[in-house]
């Protein structure tokens, strides 16, 4: 029986031997502990490193864990200004290991769990965050038609679609009443700005710990975790960065609340937004508080789903899932507070 913690190494090796040109075993398998949604494994051979990312087994929320979409978007971005891992294979045959999966190159480098980056110099901290800004602007400047992604997400009001979708997802995984979450969903529906026509590729979970940087330089080598990607409003991604920074500093919150950013070489929210707008030739960002509140809401809905999977017994990392699941009311209140920000 397949589960989220183990992988049938023999079955994977047979599949790769039959389908991946140049593959030479044996393989050693190690599970990455960071991801909560799609279980991810490092596959090491004597001369190459691969990553296997799979849909979890069991009963899942509709449209969630779409590893085939992750494979498609990263394949489309090959050789673009948005660095991604090289994609190899998508296996849609559940009989191989129990669920759909894909194989990509392992990208070695540095990954920073905290934006304060305690082991990095102040100068390099600034360069890394500026590189994060550059990649985000490049992502939103991707020509989705030329890259074959014009149909990657529906047209129309992205915010309306997302608020509706995540409200349904939240209700489907609700385990107890959270008044702040109910209030936030109501206000997001009532205060939604009109569609301004901006439609780009969006990552959906753009933050520092989803980027791999070169081991020696401050260049970004790969953007990871494309599960929530679609076409939509670019300011949702921009606000996702700022949302993360409002969290407490440290390995749990992974934010920058209370830090002296200038002393650490880190930009203010306003400076990061201004640099993004400069790169994209924009005059500014309207309704930023709404986009920020939306991001807090979506993250609350996501971690509620993580908690529900833990309670149902099919979380990727059960102990951490139970811990992060307790933050749903906190994110909901932050979302209400963000709606007051102009």
UniProtKB/TrEMBL annotation:
It holds the Pfam family APH. InterPro entries: ACAD10-like, ACAD10_11_N, Aminoglycoside_PTrfase, Kinase-like_dom_sf. Gene3D superfamilies: 3.90.1200.10, Phosphorylase Kinase, domain 1. Residues 29-255 form the Aminoglycoside phosphotransferase domain. Keywords: Kinase, Transferase. The keyword DNA-binding does not apply. It comes from the Bacteria. One of its GO terms (molecular function) is kinase activity. The keyword Kinase applies. This is Predicted kinase, aminoglycoside phosphotransferase (APT) family. It comes from Sulfitobacter brevis. The lineage of its organism: Bacteria, Pseudomonadati, Pseudomonadota, Alphaproteobacteria, Rhodobacterales.
